[in-house]
Amino acid sequence: MGKEYTETRPFVSWEMMESFMVDAFAGYGVPRADAKICADVLLEADRRGIESHGCNRFKPIYIDRIEKGTLLPVTGTEIIKETPTTLVMDAHDGMGMVASHRMMERLIQKAREYGMAGGAIKNSTHYGIAGYWTDMAAKAGMVAMTGTNARPSIAPTFGVENMLGTNPLTISLPTDEEFPFCLDCATSIVQRGRIEYYAREGKDTPAGTVISDEGKPLTDSAEILKRLVDGTAALTPLGGIGEELAGYKGYGYATVIEILSAALSGGKFMKALSGVSPEGRPQMYGLGHFFFVVDPEAFMGLETFKKVAGDICRELRASKKAPGQDRIYTAGEKEHDMWLFRKDKGVPVGEGVQKDIITVRDRLGLDYHFPFEETK
């Protein structure tokens, strides 16, 4: 059994939340098969405890954008170039999660046949937690890497203007343990989704993770979100401000992801991804994603790979611990522990998410009564 957690928020069962989100997406015009993919991606974030990308984003990132017309509910993907080992796709401003699912299905097939494969998508939208896509490959016995660009929010080292997205570099590796090694993190110290979560929960953003255009730290989460949009604040890259703590490394990795996301697909980049036209009107985001999949069978075999990967993770966890620490983790382990804690309980929903759920339910006239309503 994994680690125990303290949770004071009410739970909604996984089955009820999935059914509701599928019905809600369908109510906004998303085909039901696609709606199931979208709901599963969001719920997977909550299963792992990545609440900044789970139910918290259901309404503000997806439903609200469909309403605004900056996200199309029907995803008409188009293959614009293909070779035996590569694929380039245009998502035509549809659901990024749906386009990415179609991409990964094809790349896994290609890697199975040819040993490795790579793909890129342009004119896409937010594709959920990046680890969903790499773990999709890991479950098939594959190594995978993905990245995506995003709305500008990171300032380059020695700069204060938001130029780069939070641009995650995500890798999953199959192991002989119950869960894959999955490193899924932004190239900024904190990502925009986490600040959205802080704002919804009425919490401050940690000092030093956001700077104003005057070079001063900001902590008011609601103010930060506004200033990120109007360009008067920026996130700091991994390592922080300047070079003393190697902020140039986070800046460099964010730039790599920006280039691969845009250049491989021939898509947009940086300021063109703001979602706001030069006249100040909402417009399509046009995000880019890239994906690489490798079949270990083309090297020394899957079982060898899994055992070596597992041995490395176990040796790391068994190494000498710092005073006061009783556990060393490897990537993906905390998320697995969270799933063990939540799998029989459901999704914890705070007041902000509760309001979003009720708003969408009532707007669509859906027949759901949630457990948290009984205590109000």
Overview of the molecule:
The protein is an alpha+beta fold. 39% of the residues lie in helices and 14% in strands. It is built from eleven helices and eleven strands. The chain has helices spanning 14-27, 32-47, 58-68, 96-114, 130-139, 192-201, 221-230, 247-263, 302-317, 333-342, 351-364, and strands at residues 11-12, 78-83, 86-90, 116-124, 143-148, 169-173, 181-185, 210-212, 233-235, 287-294, 347-348. It has a seven-stranded mixed beta sheet, sandwiched between helices. A two-stranded antiparallel ribbon has the order 1-11. The longest helix is centred in the N-terminal third of the chain and has 19 residues, at 96-114. It starts with 10 loop residues before the first strand and ends in a 12-residue tail after the last helix. The model has no long low-confidence stretch (mean pLDDT 94).
